[in-house]
Amino acid sequence: MHVEVGFKLDKSLEYYRKKVEEYNCTNFYNAEVEDTYYTKESLDNKSENEIKCSCVRIRHDRDLDYNLKPKGNWKYSFQNLTLKNKSTAFKVSNEKLNSMTKEEVLNLLKKEGFKKVFYTKKLDIHYSIDGFNGDIQFQPIENIGLIVYYYNDDYIGLPLKEQRKKLVDELNLVGFNFNYDKLGLDKLRTIYYGKELYSDNQNG
Fold it and tell me: Is 137 left (phi over 0), alpha (psi -120 to 50) or beta?
């Protein structure tokens, strides 16, 4: 398992973009994103990652320019579309999904007993850190607030506490001031239970 931290921030998006750019971080991707999650399982007592992996996600997104103005058309994509019935389990291929309309996918989910459980709307603003193989993601999430997510694929395989410490250290190198004990906000658990819930790994 790899660690991802997701800390809730208390200043504006513009403040943090300016801050990381002062440390030579480079903005390389921006999007407006709407995600709808469907499941046929109970999500009670599941971790953030377990909830995510229990849901089909339909993503509706479009690219934005540096100033967060639209520069592309809206498009759909699908994740975790694993459908099961009493006698068989099968996975719809990406090729098959790409040939289906959103309405066809929704009808397929309904037929298999999936129900809508989450809807999230956010911006997704990515920065690279010079010298590190990690992405800073600023996500202003509707009804939750501004979250900074960070992970680094180079640390997969290290002990979880060591991964987390390295991630906090790298964020602090580019203008943040997090301590190792600060917990991150679990977005899906927060929406599911209707109150802010935290953990030490937003991928855990």
Answer: beta
